[in-house]
Design a protein that fits this description.
Elements: E1 10-14, H1 19-26, H2 32-48, E2 57-64, E3 69-76, E4 80-84, E5 87-91, E6 96-103, H3 107-118, E7 123-126, E8 132-136
Length: about 140
């Protein structure tokens, strides 16, 4: 967040990594990310008064190498019908709801973008395997 003429921005970045590593991180064995993603349906039910049955859905995550992003979805396990404020909506088995994009940075490109935006090069720190970075602008 920038504050005044001498404000600074501290930015943490998840950098591009191996596809299998990223997909495993967003579809973790303990199911933490899946539970987080599926909870979206509980919130939609609460806010909109809909009737999504979470048991009818599964979490799916895939890495889009061209877009440099993880895409997360909720996928219907079977045909389901949901009551929504504007009427019922049927979902086919396998139909997906796109819930999130998590973009991965290429460090050189990000440094160039931050430099152009701030007028000077940011100070950057990387973990020893260059999987993550923090930049101070």
């Amino acid at each position: 967040m920038l504050c005044g003429s001498d404000g600074r921005l501290l930015l943490d970045m998840d950098l591009v990594k191996d596809k299998a590593m990223l997909e495993a991180a967003y579809d973790d064995a303990l199911g933490v990310t899946a539970a987080f993603n599926l909870n979206i349906l509980n919130n939609v039910n609460r806010i909109l008064g809909s009737d999504f049955d979470v048991r009818g859905w599964r979490h799916a995550a895939r890495y889009d190498e061209r877009g440099l992003r993880i895409e997360m979805y909720l996928e219907a396990r079977r045909e389901v019908s949901v009551r929504l404020p504007d009427g019922p909506r049927a979902f086919r088995a396998g139909e997906r709801i796109h819930t999130e994009n998590s973009y991965k940075a290429v460090s050189a490109g990000l440094v160039a973008l931050l430099t152009a935006s701030a007028g000077r090069e940011p100070r950057c720190w990387f973990d020893c395997q260059r999987r993550f970075a923090v930049a101070l602008c």
